# Entry
Amino acid sequence: MAEPTETQGQEQEHSRLGDLVKLAVLAWSMAILTANYLGVFKQSLDPTFPASLLTGTMAAMGVNIRQNKKKDESKPTTLGK
# Structure
């Protein structure tokens, strides 16, 4: 009976470590992109790699920035009343 609790504890530790790594990668990529756009680096830096890490990490964390083009038809619009 002790095995399931040990497994759950290990999974929770791995989950916390994974979240910490994701946050570190997110912060690093945001810092590099911000510094590049502000002109901190003396030579030009290609922002493709940090930008791809930023979007990949955000997607892994569940952040989804997308505009819904469909209108919500369940809400009727009242114009001119």
Remarks:
- The radius of gyration is 21 Å.
- The helical segments are 2-38, 48-60.
